[in-house]
Design a protein that fits this description.
With about 375 residues, the protein is mainly β. It contains four helices and 16 strands.
């Protein structure tokens, strides 16, 4: 009975967008330029992020781990990412995407290296179907590559929600598309996922996680977009959920100076934490373990266009995240001021410098839950 209900939900999620636009969707004829394209086409992509790291907190290493014995590595060079990707268009409607991170070979590769591995078929602007391993739409950061974000890396909440199966690279299927409600453009996504991360041999249980994202374009002039996210599912027969809301904007102050802002809030069950605890150390109800967080990311961009230098940017993300705010709360506040020099267009070359400053309500010795002041210089080159 439960399996039948789940199949009905899956079928509804993937048919609802198609049914909702069936009366308005029209097949668009190919243009001359499109008909001249010879398929398949290939687009190679690459990304290098090399860093110098220095920790200014006593007995805390460059990865944020505290060492009570005092033997912490406090300065180091590092390759954060070395990505190689291939986007293949088999036809105007069909594409296959592969992305690997070769930097993952520097440590245990289990569950790593392969990031994107999916196929996508686009019927029209109203609906496209994706299947494989991909980043499901569940917030701002899921839709933006790490090489063009306005900070050094994704937020703490992004990675924690990824551990719980809602964000980052997941295995499953998704329906996406766009349509207009009156004068308001709307983008949507429905996803159903295993919920146990990338490169898993199979689902860890028979439960699935279903999520959706809706984005409303409130102002085209100021690029103001409102995003709403929601999800539910079962993990080892326990009910889990996640919700979120976000807003983005981009204001042009002068011809060369612009200001953009991201604000994102998320809350959900931290079932990853719940099942990692010994049975005797946790409560009987998984709902007692909930995570929540919010961040603000303002960014100023000044167009220079002098010789090779394209622009200067300054950002400072402030984030509050608590992995378990109901039980054993330990709020983490993170400040990430950063200066970025862009060379070429679309961040082809980028040099970034700044700090990641972490403050916890209380420190836990010999763990990464410890106050830290980390200085970073990052070189980024991308295709």
């Amino acid at each position: 009975m439960k399996k039948t209900l789940l199949l009905q939900i899956i079928l509804l999620l993937f048919l609802m967008p198609l049914l909702s636009i069936a009366q308005t969707a029209q097949t668009q004829p190919e243009t001359d330029s499109e008909s001249d394209i010879k398929y398949p086409t290939f687009q190679f992509k690459g990304l290098l992020q090399a860093r110098y790291l220095e920790s200014f907190e006593d007995n805390v290493d460059v990865l944020g781990t505290h060492h009570s014995a005092g033997n912490a590595t406090q300065s180091s060079f590092d390759i954060k990412r070395m990505r190689v990707g291939l986007n293949t268009k088999l036809s105007k409607e069909t594409e296959v995407v592969i992305l690997v991170n070769l930097a993952d070979f520097k440590s245990d590769t289990k569950g790593k290296v392969l990031e994107n591995a999916y196929g996508k078929y686009t019927f029209n602007k109203y609906i496209a179907l994706t299947g494989g391993q991909f980043r499901p739409a569940f917030g701002i950061e899921e839709l933006v590559p790490v090489d063009i974000i306005k900070s050094f890396d994704f937020s703490n909440q992004y990675y924690e929600f990824g551990k719980n199966g809602w964000t980052s690279f997941q295995i499953g299927a998704s329906a996406t598309g766009a349509f207009d409600v009156g004068k308001i453009p709307v983008n949507y996504a429905f996803s159903i996922l295993n919920g146990n991360g990338k490169n898993a041999e199979m689902d860890k249980d028979n439960g699935k996680q279903v999520s959706t994202r809706w984005v409303l374009e409130l102002s085209k002039k100021y690029d103001i977009n409102l995003g709403l996210n929601g999800g539910f599912g079962k993990v080892f027969k326990e009910d889990v959920f996640a919700i979120g809301a976000d807003i983005t904007s981009d204001f042009k102050i002068t011809d060369k100076l612009s200001f953009d802002l991201q604000i994102e809030y998320k809350q959900g069950t931290n079932h990853n934490l719940y099942f990692s605890l010994p049975l005797a150390s946790r409560t009987p109800d998984v709902a007692d373990y909930q995570m929540r967080g919010i961040y603000f990311l303002p960014n100023f961009r000044y167009v220079v266009d002098y010789n090779k230098l394209t622009s200067l940017e300054f950002s400072c993300r402030y984030e509050r995240f608590d992995p378990s705010y109901k039980i054993d709360s330990n709020l983490r506040q993170t400040y990430t001021p950063m200066v970025s020099l862009e060379f070429g267009k679309a961040y082809r070359g980028r040099i970034e410098a700044g700090f990641q400053i972490d403050r916890f309500d209380y420190n836990v010795p010999d763990t990464t839950t410890y106050n830290n002041n980390l200085f970073l210089i990052q070189l980024q080159l991308r295709l």
